[in-house]
Design a protein that fits this description.
By secondary structure, the protein is an alpha+beta fold. The protein has six helices and 15 strands. The strands form five sheets. The chain has a five-stranded antiparallel sheet. The two termini are about 30 Å apart.
């Protein structure tokens, strides 16, 4: 179990808890009101250096973090930097004053473990997960227009969700092997494109939840959110995208348009998922992860 959060004079601890399987590789990024360009340049240089060594089959001095952590760190730091930049641009065009508040997220390898009589039997690298549990900001309309303020907050949340699949896709796609990730924003778009109904639920019309097929943990979270007065957008049935079969849903506070429980995929992640076997690069990363973690498989 991991617990991440912030403490501030204006409120008590705000933290998130997530399960962490032994053998996973997880990087953590913190955005204290903006990512330094120097920090991003250093990450880029390190990734390029490692890539050059791998291409030259020069493995001397390479560590587990070089092989796995550096690319994951570049991904989550890049996510925080790019969403900040895009929100600033959108805010200027919408007459919104925008400042990023302290935020954080993780980018991890994902592992599936099968058990026999309570003992782990097989470990499989299944992809990577970007999980941004807290991305927050202070915003205000220049004209003090409540509707414009709410609209901007809603668009910012959906935009941030979309980057949770776009960033991993950019990192691991090649011209020969494009990969496909899934986030809440993409799941809702795919569901509509495939003819599914997309429901916007409130406590007054919570009965429509009975029309939705979703796992019990996500259903319970949605029910609790509706009872607290939040608005939930969710599609009708789980999606199958290259072996990934889950649902995407957004929990929004209608009073301010911000994500109350964030933009989630069933399974608990506030972010995006990228399946492993969609690309050669991810398959290589998986092999490295299992080797570094002492992964195993028994007959």
């Amino acid at each position: 179990m991991t617990r991440l959060g912030f403490d501030a004079p204006a409120h008590n601890w705000r933290y998130s808890e997530n399960n962490l399987i032994a053998g996973k590789y997880q990087t953590v990024a913190i955005d204290m009101q903006g990512i330094s360009p120097d920090q991003l340049e250093a990450l880029k240089s390190r990734v390029e250096e490692v890539s050059s060594k791998l291409n030259a089959e020069n493995y001397a001095g390479l560590t587990k973090h070089d092989l796995v952590g550096s690319i994951l760190q570049a991904g989550i730091q890049g996510y925080l930097a790019e969403t900040y930049a895009m929100d600033k641009i959108a805010a200027a065009a919408s007459d919104i004053v925008y400042n990023r508040s302290p935020s954080y997220g993780t980018f991890s390898t994902e592992m599936n473990v099968s058990y026999l009589f309570g003992m782990p039997r097989n470990v499989f690298f299944s992809g990577v997960v970007m999980d941004v549990d807290q991305i927050s900001s202070n915003t205000e309309s220049v004209d003090n227009c409540y509707e414009d303020w709410v609209a901007f907050n809603r668009s910012s949340g959906m935009r941030s969700s979309a980057y949770e699949h776009l960033i991993p896709e950019r990192l691991f796609s090649t011209e020969e092997n494009p990969v496909e990730g899934v986030s809440t924003a993409k799941a809702l778009a795919l569901a509509m494109a495939r003819g599914q109904r997309v429901y916007t639920l409130t406590n007054d019309i919570a009965y429509n939840l009975s029309q939705i097929t979703i796992d019990s943990e996500a259903r319970s979270e949605i029910q609790n959110a509706l009872q607290r007065g939040y608005e939930v957008t969710v599609h009708e049935n789980p999606l199958n995208v290259i072996g990934w079969e889950r649902s995407g849903y957004a929990i929004i506070d209608p009073e301010n348009g911000a994500g109350a429980g964030a933009f989630k995929i069933s399974g608990g992640a506030s972010g995006g998922f990228l399946v492993a076997f969609a690309a050669t690069a991810l398959g290589f990363l998986g092999a490295v992860v299992l080797l570094c973690a002492g992964g195993f498989q028994t007959d």
